[in-house]
Design goal:
Layout (H helix, E strand, L loop, with lengths): L24 E13 L4 E7 L2 E7 L5 H7 L7 E10 L14 E12 L16 H6 L1 H4 L3 H23 L3 E2 L17 E3 L7 E3 L5 H9 L4 E9 L11 E10 L3 H20 L8 E4 H8 L12 E3 L1 H4 L5 H8 L3 E7 L7 H12 L7 E6 L2 E3 L8 H11 L6 E7 L1 H18 L10 E5 L4 E4 L4 E4 L14 H4 L8 E6 L2 E8 L4 H10 L4 H14 L7 E7 H8 L30 H6 L13
Parallel strand pairs: 3-5, 6-9, 11-17
Antiparallel strand pairs: 1-2, 1-4, 2-3, 4-5, 7-8, 9-10, 10-22, 12-13, 13-16, 14-15, 14-16, 17-20, 18-19, 20-21, 21-22
Helix pairs in contact: 4-6, 4-16, 10-12, 14-15
The chain binds one RNA strand through β1, β2 and α2.
RNA sequence: GGAGCUGUGGUGGAGAUGGUUACCAUGCCAGCCUGUCAAGCUGGAGGUCGCGGGUUCAAGUCCCGUCAGCUCCGCCA
């Protein structure tokens, strides 16, 4: 029997009650977090999005309210009117923000009943994520989830405030747009009015924001949904949100420093943290050499050390042959890990195997020499050189991978992070920002047998490298930059190509023929002929940004209604088959035989 | 496309070597209880072990397949 809200509209939020309110008569609206029935006295913890306060139902105060309270259960929706009183001495609850007071209910309306929820609505619950996702509306009732969404709100608010103050305009771009080559797989939307043709959902508003620069908008931003039909990860969802930014008449330094100000402003406004600027700038090459990653976590050391030159001289065949065939040998000094058991080292070997490494050579440094199955292939002098190169001391464990540079980087880069986790070297509260700069413009794709853009095909090469585009494209540096925070790629951008001749050259390098370029990007090439200012910008992954600020392990926790790893929504059961008529209208036929029962 | 982990009442977990009514906690329901706060006490209901097949006299437990969730590789300009 749900009752009408009537005049019992809240006068204050549960979490806001303090000793200041003692003596006041207040009206609370919220959910029953917990009911404790003592027979002659009932306590109800009432919860709204601000917090919890204890409501007392006593027949001495109001018998009708008390009797109604006996029927109340968890998650019932209530309106309560009552007097705020200081709790009797000895019954204060220090764990509750409002624990010094309680509300004596003089009137209760049960606005709605509730089924027993499948899990307790509280912080730190231990429930299968699938259950949480199926009942996401209940999951989001939990205070820690609400806090993340509030933080997300404050983050976007701070972004908008900062950019507005700096003269940026928030402009929307189309969701129904055009499929383009390069990049991720598109989500396609069939066109009803144009049989056999499709829109694509944007992977990013890249081209539109550049066109807005041609339009003379000068400074643009957008908090915008992007879509990529690729496999998911803890930090990758098929639809995610970017803070997208573009500016005219700027160079790289101008963009980076303004973005540093933005980051500092947002962290100050949301978390109250002071961020030191400018951020470190680390060339891509150096990041790969020292950390084996273009998104290194700089909160700890464990840097990769190149011993290719030393390894080429040893009798150990695995090392020598790798070096001979143009590979690399690099190592990490896991300080103080000399006590690792054989089993632990085997685990690490298996770990690097995931990244293509065929093995993990190891040496334990002891007072009286080196303990290692491969030590016998090395002379004393060679061992000494390796030790000094890695700065090894007794008690250290040295780990080596010999392979193609990509495999060495991937495996040791990952091993570095794994070791840091195992050794607890990562300071959880540290925020370590770094710009990765001087990316190559293109890299050779073995599968496609052509050069592909490392960033995207609109990234400007460094001016003096332009001539190299014809001769040694892989040596051309791009005016591109990524912002990395604690090993997570927060965002990336570049100064764009704004000259038609350079853009055409770029298309040529990546093997995009004149005709295809014309067909796919003709409008862009045309636009570039009408007075395009030099421009550049960046896009940040908002979900990842919030994830780090909220110290969560997955962006699913920072998105109200996320998808599972197989890109489904467990709550609304999407995707789903559609009606035959819908398909017919869209001029579509599926090649799949529907499963039984569908 | 691949590797790994997980799947037992609503929820979280336990169930050596295959063997009688599948255990514990919590939640739920009922009763008692006027100061609790993840209240307490007493009693009760609730699962056939993700699904399918196989081995066996007998399977939650072994085998095969499959589905789902998560982590990772590939992929993600």
């Amino acid at each position: 029997m749900a009752e009408a809200l009537g005049d019992l509209m809240r006068t204050i939020y549960c979490g806001e009650l303090t000793t200041e309110n003692i003596g006041e008569t207040v009206i609370l609206n919220g959910w029953v977090n917990k009911r404790r029935d003592h027979g002659g006295l009932i306590f109800v913890d009432l919860r709204d999005r601000t917090g919890i306060v204890q409501v007392v139902f006593s027949p001495d105060v109001d018998r009708e309210a008390f009797e109604k309270a006996e029927t109340v259960r968890s998650e019932y929706v209530l309106a309560v009117k009552g007097e705020v009183r200081r709790r009797p001495e000895g019954t204060e609850n220090e764990q509750l923000k409002t624990g010094l007071v309680e509300v004596y209910a003089s009137e209760l309306r049960i606005l709605n009943k509730a089924k027993t929820p499948p899990f307790y609505i509280a912080e730190d619950i231990d429930v299968d994520e699938a259950v949480r996702l199926k009942y996401r509306y209940l999951d989001l009732r939990r205070p820690d989830m609400q806090r993340v969404l509030m933080l997300r709100h404050r983050t976007t608010k701070a972004m908008r405030d900062f950019l507005d103050a700096k003269g940026f305009l928030e402009i929307e771009t189309p969701m129904l747009t055009k499929s383009t080559p390069e990049g991720a797989r598109d989500y396609l939307v069939p066109s009803r009015l144009h049989p056999g043709e499709f829109f694509a959902l944007p992977q990013s508003p890249q081209i539109f924001k550049q066109l807005l620069m041609v339009s003379g908008m000068e400074r643009y931003f957008q908090i915008v949904r992007c879509f990529r039909d690729e496999d998911l990860r803890a930090d990758r969802q098929p639809e995610f949100t970017q803070l997208d930014i573009e500016m005219s008449f700027v160079d790289r330094e101008r963009v980076l420093s303004l973005m540093e100000d933005l980051v500092a402003y947002v962290f100050k406004e949301t978390l109250g943290k002071d961020i030191q600027t400018p951020f470190t700038r680390l060339p891509y090459r150096e990041a790969m050499d020292r950390y084996g990653s273009d998104k290194p976590d700089l909160r700890f050391g464990l840097e990769l050390v190149d011993i290719t030159d030393l390894a080429g001289e040893v009798e150990f065949k695995v090392f020598a042959s790798v070096v001979q065939s143009g590979g690399q040998v690099k190592g990490i000094n896991a300080r103080g890990c000399g006590s690792f058991t054989r089993r632990e080292i085997d685990e690490l070997t298996e770990f690097v195997g995931n990244y293509g490494a065929k093995g993990l050579a190891w040496m334990i440094v002891q007072e009286d020499g080196i303990k290692s199955p491969i030590a016998k292939f090395f002379s004393e002098e060679q061992l000494g050189n390796i030790k000094s190169r890695l700065g090894a001391a007794p008690g250290d464990l040295l780990l080596f991978v010999a392979d193609r540079p990509q495999v060495v980087a991937a495996s040791l880069g990952a091993l570095r992070v794994e070791l840091a986790k195992r050794l607890d070297l990562i300071k959880k509260d540290e925020l370590n920002f770094v710009w990765i700069v001087d990316f190559p413009l293109v890299e050779y794709d073995e599968e496609e047998k052509r050069y592909v853009a490392l960033h995207h095909p609109f990234t400007s090469p460094v001016e003096e490298d332009i001539p190299l585009m014809d001769t040694e494209p892989e040596k051309v540096r791009a005016q591109a930059y990524d912002l990395v925070l604690n090993g997570v790629e927060l965002g990336g951008g570049s100064i764009r190509i704004h000259r038609r001749d350079v853009q055409e050259k770029m298309f040529k390098v990546i093997g995009l023929g004149d005709e295809e370029a014309r067909e796919k990007f003709g409008f862009l090439l045309d636009a570039f002929e009408y007075g395009t200012p030099p421009h550049g910008g960046i896009a940040f992954g908002l979900d990842r940004w919030v994830m780090i600020m909220a110290q969560r392990d997955t962006i699913r926790d920072c998105i109200a209604f996320p998808k599972t790893q197989s890109a489904t929504d467990l709550m609304i059961q999407a995707p789903s088959p559609v009606d035959k008529h819908q398909l017919k209208e869209l001029h579509l036929k599926t090649a799949v035989v529907p499963r039984k029962g569908e």
